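2024-03-11 09:14:02 INFO worker-7 job=invfold-0412 stage=load source=structure_tokens
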């Protein structure tokens, strides 16, 4: 695993977040995106450090027609980070030396795969230079948001008490696609599991939420009984 390889390289993990002045971060992002065309803009406005880096990466990728390739690379990196929490601890370590960062970038590049125009390499180097490697997971999520908007997708979040089978997910997607909630856009289905729901589902699309969970029904019943007493 990547975390093990990094550990063998002599890195010391730390949970403490290393903070640098915001001016350094912003200037780092600006220098990274300086070569991007002025007329290339992200489809939606994002905020915060993660959003700023994701927007700069989107602009740089769009200029070189590498959006899909960059998206695939960040999706892969994001999945690896979520599967191995130890990686985030390593990336956030405030004691990383220049050599440590170079080794981490090299490993991350291997995971990301092909890199047209060194987009990913330059992006990771910028994060490392500004001591923001710990923000990588957030940037991956924010970039996915930009790509969904670019593709004209609307996110359909389905939360259930237990993992749903593909047939059930397909039926829900089909039902929502035919409803007014989809607004005629392509749906991007995201499934989550939350045992606290007890049973049923919570469906979120855009700014709308349909709560069909057992926990919600129990809460309403408890409120009704309390009010009656």
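2024-03-11 09:14:09 INFO worker-7 stage=emit residues=229
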């Amino acid at each position: 695993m990547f975390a093990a390889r990094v550990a063998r390289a002599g890195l010391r993990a730390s949970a403490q977040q290393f903070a640098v002045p915001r001016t350094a971060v912003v200037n780092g992002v600006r220098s990274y995106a300086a070569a991007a065309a002025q007329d290339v803009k992200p489809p939606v406005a994002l905020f915060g450090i993660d959003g700023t880096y994701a927007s700069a990466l989107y602009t740089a990728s769009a200029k070189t027609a590498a959006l899909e390739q960059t998206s695939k690379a960040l999706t892969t990196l994001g999945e690896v980070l979520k599967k191995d929490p130890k990686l985030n601890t390593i990336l956030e370590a405030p004691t990383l030396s220049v050599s440590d960062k170079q080794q981490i970038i090299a490993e991350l590049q291997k995971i990301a795969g092909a890199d047209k125009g060194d987009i990913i390499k330059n992006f990771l180097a910028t994060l490392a230079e500004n001591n923001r490697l710990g923000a990588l997971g957030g940037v991956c999520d924010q970039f996915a948001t930009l790509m969904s908007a670019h593709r004209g997708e609307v996110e359909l979040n389905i939360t259930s008490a237990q993992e749903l089978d593909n047939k059930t997910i397909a039926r829900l997607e089909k039902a929502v696609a035919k409803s007014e909630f989809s607004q005629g856009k392509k749906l991007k289905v995201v499934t989550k599991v939350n045992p606290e729901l007890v049973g049923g589902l919570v469906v979120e699309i855009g700014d709308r939420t349909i709560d069909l969970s057992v926990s919600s029904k129990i809460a309403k019943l408890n409120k009704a009984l309390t009010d009656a007493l």
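2024-03-11 09:14:09 INFO worker-7 stage=report msg="The chain has two domains: 2-149, 152-228."
2024-03-11 09:14:10 INFO worker-7 job finished
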